[in-house]
Amino acid sequence: VIGGAGAMAAAAMVAAGGGDFSDLREIKKQLLSVAERSRERGLQHSGKWAAELAFALEPLPLSELPPPPVLTEEDARDLDAYTLAKSYFDLKEYDRAAYFLQGCKSQKAYFLYMYSRYLSGEKKKDDETVDSLGPLEKGQVKNEALRELRVELSKKHKAQELDGFGLYLYGVVLRKLDLVKEAIDVFVEAAHVLPLHWGAWLELCNLITDKEMLKFLSLPDTWMKEFFLAHIYTELQLIEEALQKYQSLIDAGFSKSTYIISQIAVAYHNIRDIDKALSIFNELRKQDPYRIENMDTFSNLLYVRSMKPELSYLAHNLCEIDKYRVETCCVIGNYYSLRSQHEKAALYFQRALKLNPRYLGAWTLMGHEYMEMKNTSAAIQAYRHAIEVNKRDYRAWYGLGQTYEILKMPFYCLYYYRRAHQLRPNDSRMLVALGECYEKLNQLVEAKKCYWRAYAVGDVEKMALVKLAKLHEQLNESEQAAQCYIKYIQDIYSCGEVVEHLEVSTAFRYLAQYYFKCKLWDEASACAQKCCAFNDTREEGKALLRQILQLRNQGETSSTDVAAPFFLPASLSANNTPTRRVSPLNLSSVTP
Amino acid sequence: MASVHESLYFNPMLTNGVVHANVFGVRDWVTPHKMALLVLLSELGRAGPQLGLLERRRLNRLLLPLLQGPDMALSRLRKAIEECCPHLAGSVHIRLKLMAEGELKDMEQFFDDLSDSFSGTEPEVHKTSVVGLFLRHMILAYNKLSFSQVYKLYTALQQYFQKDEKKDGADENEMELTNPEELDGKMEKEELDGPLREEEIACSGPLSQKQAEYFLSQQASLLKNDETKALAPASLQKELNNLLKFNPDFAEAHYLSYLNSLRVQDVFSSTHSLLHYFDRLILTGAESKSNGDEGYGRSLRYAALNLAALHCRFGHYQQAELALQEAIRIAQESNDHVCLQHCLSWLYILEQKIFDSCVLLEHSVNKSLHFGLPYLASLGIQSLVQQRAFAGKAANKLMDALKDSDLLHWKHSLSELIDISIAQKTAIWRLYGRSTMALQQAQTLLSMNSLEAVNVGVQQNNTESFAVVLCHLAELHAEQGYFAAASEILKHLKERFPPNSQHAQLWMLFDQKIQFERAMNDGRYHVADSLVAGITALNSIEGVYRKAIVLKAQNQMSEAHKLLQKLLIHCQKIKNTEMVIRVLLCMAELYWRSSCHTIALPVLLQALALAREYSLQYLASETVLNLAFSQLILGIPEQALNILHMAIEPVLAHGAVLDKGCAMFLVAKCQVASAASYTPQKKIEALESAILNLNEAKTYFAKVDCKEQLRDVLYFQARLFHTLGRTQERNKCAMLFRQLHQELPAHGVPLINAFK
C-alpha cells in the first residue's frame, strides 16, 4: 500500500478491512507501510506503535516486503522542499520547516507543513507561559496558530481534500480548541479513511468518557478496531472486557507484542491483582529491558508489596537509561517514598511534573508524600491539581478525604469519600473509609451499611467484617456480631494468611464469650483454646476454659452432649452469605 | 496512560503551574493602560505650571480612581481626561502615538526618563506620595521584566493604541462601502468561525487581576443587596467559569460560584464550589505566612461552619448539625472564641428548628458582646426579641431591648442591621395589633436613606427587610380596603424581587393571603378554595387554617371542626400562640353557628386569656366581639354592651375595615336588644343612635365591598326605621335591600344569628 493520493489511501482501507486476523502477513505488511508513512510525516509515536506491533509478527521474506512508496508527479515536485523541511522538522525547527514547505501541493508535504505550524504554535505556547505578563494572563496563553489552522483545514475538509493524516491533524486542532463534538466526528472519519493510523484511535480514546458514547460511534470494521476497543475498555475501567480482548489478540498471534503485554499488566494493576501484574511486568522487563513506558505502574506495584530491593534495582536501572523521563522520576519518587524519605520523593514527583505538567499520577503521588510529611495544605494543593487535570481521579478524591480525616473533620471528608466512591463504586477501600467516618459521626446505621457493602463487593483489607462486628457489639446485637466474626475467621483461614491479622484473637475472644453465654460449651472451649494461641488473649482464654470446665462439671448430668460442629457454619452463615450483587446503596438522603 | 500527542514530549523544559505558583503573589504588572497613566503623570509634571487651578483640581480628583481602578480602553481614558483638561488629553495622545508608532527604544527611553521625576533638589513627585508609590511600583515592575516580556509589553501597547485608532476610523468610515472582495473574505471567515465566535463573545477578552477582583466584589455585593441587578445566574456562572479557566487559583471566584448556585437552589454544585473554595483558601492561607499555621487552621474552622450553613439553607438539618459540631470541636481545640460565637449563633438557628433555646441565645449575646462582635450580638438580640415576642414577654422590655440594639447599630454603623431592626419592629407592632405603629415603622424604613454608599445611584437595597416591610405594607393597605394601593405595592415587589429570587416567597404568600381575603369578602368561596393550595405550599399551617375557613364558609361544619382540632393540637405543640387563638376563635364561631353558644363561651374565654397573656391586643378585641355576640344571643345584651365598650376603641383605632363594620353592627344590635326594656323616650334615643351606628357600619362595609353584610345592615336599618315610623327612610332602605337581595343568593343562616 502506497502513501500518496487519497484514492490510494482509500485502497488501504479496503485492504485493512475485515476485522479478522487470518492473514497475519497482510497485517504485517500494512503495519510496516503505515510505520513508514507515519515517520515520513513526523508522527513518531504512531510510527513507533506500528513498528512495535510489526516486530511481534513473523519476519517477511524479501519478496513479500512492501515496495517503497511510489512517488507521484506532485511528490516529485515537492521532493526537495520536503526533504529539506523534514530534516529541519526532525531538528525541531518548526517555523523553518513550515517556511520551506509553503505552497507545496502533495499530501505528504502539505501535512508536514500544517503539522510544523501546529507544533510551532504549541511550542511557543509552552514557552510563553513562562514569560507571560501577569498571573491572569497565564491561562490565556493560546496556541495562536490553531485558529488559522482550523480555518484552512476546514476548507480542505469541506472540499474533501484531506487524507487520513490530514483529518487526524484537523481533529487534533479541533480538540485543542475544545470543540469536542466536532473533534470526535473528525477522528471517526480519520479512522475510516486510514484505519491503520493508531494516533487517531488514541485521540478518540481520550475523548470518549463513557460506555454510552462508545455505543453510538460508527467505527470501521477492521482489525485495528480490536486494539482500540481493548484500549478503551482499559481506560473506562471495564477491565474484564479489556482482558478478554487482549487475550484474543494474543491468541490471534500477537503474543510477542510488548505493547499488549504491558497493557495487560496495567489492566491487572487496575483491578489490583498485584501478583499477576507483577509477574507480567517481570516478563515484560525480560523481553524489553530498556523500556521506560509503564514502569511507573510497575513501581507502584512494587511499592504496594514493599519490595524494596526490586524497586531499588528498577530505579537505578531506569536512571541509567534516561533520568529525564517522567516515568523515571516517578519510579525514583516511589523508591524514596518506600524508604520514608518523603522530601526527596516529593522533589522527584515535582521534577516529573516539570517534565510533563499533564502527568496526572505525579500530582496524586506528591499529595501522598506531603501527607506523609504532615504538610496537609500542600497535600490538598497537590490533590486539587490532580483533580483539575482529571476530575475522575478517584485517588485524588480519596486522598483529599484522608487529609481532612487527619485534620479531624470526619463530616467534611465525607463529601470527598463519596466522590471517590461514586467513581469506584465497587472499591471496598472507599466504603470502609466512609464507614469509619460515619462511625466517628456516630451514625451507626449508615456505618453498618457501608461496612456490609464493603464486604459484599469483596473487601481487600479484610477489615470491614471486623469493624462491622464491633459495631454490632456496640449496639448489643450479639447475634449479628458473632456471625460477622465467624465469617471473618472463615475468610481469613480460607485465604491462608493468618499471620498479619491482629483481629483474629479479638474475634476468637468474642466468639468464646458468645458461645459461653449461649451455653454452647464445646464451641466455647474450642474458641477459648484458640485464644490461648495468641499473646494478648492467652490469659482470658485460660480463665474461660477453667470456667467452662467448672460449669460443665456442674451440669454434666443435665446437659446432653450433642457434638455440634465447630463454628456452626451451617446454621449461621449458610443462609446469610451476602450476594455479590447488592442493591445500590443509599447512604443518606443527601449525597452531593 | 501515556499522553497521546507527540507535542507533549518535544519540550523537556516545559513548565506550567509549578513555576507560576510564586508569581501569583506579585500584584503589580505593567499593562498598556498603566503606561497610558504613566504618560499622563509625566505630562502632568511637564505641564504643571501652565495648568489652571480648576483643571489641576479636577485632574487630581480623577487620578485616584484611575490608579486604583481596573484597566479601561484608551478611548474611555481619553474621554475622562478630556473632561478635565482637553489640552492635556491631546498631548497624552500624541506621546502615546509617538511611542506606539515608533520603536521599542522609545518605550525604553520613556521608562528611563520616568525616574527623573524623583531626582533634583525639589522633585516633582514625593517618593512616598500616592503617585510616587505608583511610579515606583511601575518602574520596579518594568525592570523585572525579561527581554521577551518587554517586547510583549510593547506589542501589547501597540495593539492597545491601534484598537483605539481603529475604532475612531470605523466610526468615521462607517458609511463607506467596503469593497466586495473583502466582504466576501469576511463572510467566509465568519461562517467558519461560527461556533468559535460564540464562545469568544462570552469571554469578552481577558480580565486583569484587578478587574477580576472588582468584578467579583461587585457581583457579590449585588447578590447580597440587590439580586435583580446582578448578572443572571447562568451568565454569571459562565463568566466565573471563564475566569477560573484562565486562573484556577482565583479562590474567590469559587465562592461566588457557590453563592450563585445557592441562588438557583443547586445543592450539588454549591457544595462543590464551597469545598473547592476552602481547599484553595487553605493553600493561599498557607502561602501567605502572615498568620502562619493559625491562618490555615482558621480557614478549616470556617470551612466546616460554612458547610453547616449550606446544609441549613437547604434544610438538611441533621447534616448541618454534624458539620456544626465539627466546626465547634475544631474551634474549641484551637481556642478561637470568635469562631465559636459564630457557631453558637448557628447552633441557635438549628436548634430553633427543633425546640426553643433562649438559653443558648442569651449566652451567645453575652459572649459576643464580650468579644466585641457587635454584629453577632445584635443579631442575637433581634432573634431573642423575636422569640420573646412570640413567648408573650412584656412588650415594653422588648422595645427597650430593640432600642439598645439600635444604639449598637448606629454606633457601629451597621446599616444592614438597622434595616432588619426596623422590619422587626414593624412585624412586632403588627403582631400586637397596632397597625398605625406598624405603618409608621414601615414608612420609616422605606423613606430612610441607606448608610451604605455602595450603590450611589440606588438608595435602597433589595434585602429581606425591605421585602418584609413592603409585604406588611401591602397587607395593611388591603385591610383598610385600599386594594388598588395594595396591588400596586405587590406589583412593585414583583419587580424588585422576581419570582425566582431568594425573598420572593414572602410576597407570594402575602399576595395569596390578600386575594384570599378578598375572595372571602365577595363570597367567591371556590376562588378562595383554589388559593388554599398555593398558601399551603408556602406555609402549611396558614394553609390548613385557611382551608378550615373555607369549609366553614361553605357550611361544612364537621369537616372544618375536625381540621381545626388537628391544627389546634399542632399549634399548641409548636407554641404558635397567635395561631392557637385564631383557631379558637374560628372554633367558637363554628359553635355559635351551630347555636351552641354555651359551648362557645369557654372557648372564647380561653382565647381571651391567651390573647391578653401574650398581649395580642387585636386578637383580644376580636375575641371580645365574639364574646359580646354570644352574650347578646344568650339574652344579656346589657352585659354585651358593657364589654363592647372595652373592645370598640382598639378595633376602631387599629382594626381592619371589615372588623370595624362588624363591631359597629354588633353595637347597634346590642343597643336595640337592650332598648327593649327602656322607657319609650329612652328607647327612641337608643334606636336612633343605633341607626347612626349602622350608618357607620354601612360605610365600612361599602369600603371593602361586602355586599352580604350590607344587605343585612340595610334590612336591620329598615326595621328600625319602621319601628320609629319613619316610612320614607324605611322605604329607601328596603329598596336598597331589595336590590342587593336580588343580586345575591339566598342566605343560609338566619340574619340575626350572624355576627360576621
TrEMBL record, chain A:
Chain ranges of the Cdc23 domain: 26-265
Keywords, ordered alphabetically: Cell cycle, Cell division, Mitosis, Repeat, TPR repeat, Ubl conjugation pathway
TPR repeats: 326-359, 360-393
Pathway: Protein modification; protein ubiquitination
Keyword match Repeat: yes
GO BP term (any one): anaphase-promoting complex-dependent catabolic process
Record's keyword annotation contains Membrane: no
A GO cellular component annotation in the UniProt record: anaphase-promoting complex
Record-linked InterPro entries: APC8 (IPR007192), TPR-like_helical_dom_sf (IPR011990), TPR_rpt (IPR019734)
Family, similarity comment: Belongs to the APC8/CDC23 family.
Annotated PANTHER family: CELL DIVISION CYCLE 16,23,27 (PTHR12558), CELL DIVISION CYCLE PROTEIN 23 HOMOLOG (PTHR12558:SF10)
Name this polypeptide is given: Cyclosome subunit 8
UniProt source species: Molothrus ater
Gene that produces this protein: Cdc23
UniProtKB/TrEMBL annotation, chain B:
Keyword Cell cycle: yes
GO cellular component: anaphase-promoting complex; spindle
Pfam families xrefs: ANAPC5, Apc5_N
The keyword Glycoprotein belongs to this UniProt entry's keyword annotation: no
Domain Anaphase-promoting complex subunit: 254-353
Location within or outside the cell: Cytoplasm, Cytoskeleton, Spindle; Nucleus
Domain named Anaphase-promoting complex subunit 5 N-terminal: residues: 30-167
Pathway involvement of the protein, from the record: Protein modification; protein ubiquitination
Record-level GO BP terms: anaphase-promoting complex-dependent catabolic process; cell division; positive regulation of mitotic metaphase/anaphase transition; protein K11-linked ubiquitination
InterPro entries documented for this protein: Apc5, Apc5_dom, Apc5_N, TPR-like_helical_dom_sf, TPR_rpt
Function noted in UniProt: Component of the anaphase promoting complex/cyclosome (APC/C), a cell cycle-regulated E3 ubiquitin ligase that controls progression through mitosis and the G1 phase of the cell cycle. The APC/C complex acts by mediating ubiquitination and subsequent degradation of target proteins: it mainly mediates the formation of 'Lys-11'-linked polyubiquitin chains and, to a lower extent, the formation of 'Lys-48'- and 'Lys-63'-linked polyubiquitin chains. The APC/C complex catalyzes assembly of branched 'Lys-11'-/'Lys-48'-linked branched ubiquitin chains on target proteins.
Descriptive protein name: Anaphase-promoting complex subunit 5
Source organism of this protein record: Molothrus ater
